[in-house]
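User: Predict Calcyphosine-like b's structure from this.
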Amino acid sequence: MKVFIMSYNTRFLSVMSEMAGTSRHDREMTINAKRQLSECSDPVEKLRLQCLARGSSGIKGLGRTFKIMDDDNNRSLDFKEFLKGLNDYGILMEKQEATTLFQHFDRDGSGMIDFEEFLITLRPPMSKARKEVVMQAFRKLDKTGDGVITIEDLQGVYNAKYHPKYQNGEWTEDQVFRKFLDSFDSPYDKDGKVTQEEFINYYCGVSASIDSDVYFILMMRNAWRL
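Assistant:
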């Protein structure tokens, strides 16, 4: 029984360690994105770089901002909402530039854009092999299979009681898991839940910081014991 519990603990700490390693790539990506911004003129690429300059969660955070604004839940935005979403998220863009960007995605000229399609286009491209390993990790964590990772899901996969901050009494078990989920969540709207879309958006950001498919897949397999 002790060996089984320690195996859980080793897995959990392994994931935390891999995520800490990822933060180094995150910093490099942030620096590179900021440098490329000064040379970029394409509106879509410019927005992508502004998001990546915020780290792996940048694009996911913009998606959250748009979702909050979607009061009628029709998953579409008009230009006024689109502009407000960019401003609320702190994206620096001239109005004419934002207009050009909006028109690029408003393909049917309806005055509305589907922000899911918008975010998919905005994501840095991932190879098929990378997408497959990301989805394997998500399915492993989503124990209930409802498309959302929660604290309850993690309790079925990892044992948090060997986390150093749990052992020294600083955090409760739920706080350990919540901190873990916060890593994938938007910094501006942490709800303790991670959807499949947010998980993919997060790893699209991570993927953008890692050139090699082999390294990315190895990192994912080691982190999630796939």
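The chain has two domains: 21-122, 128-224.
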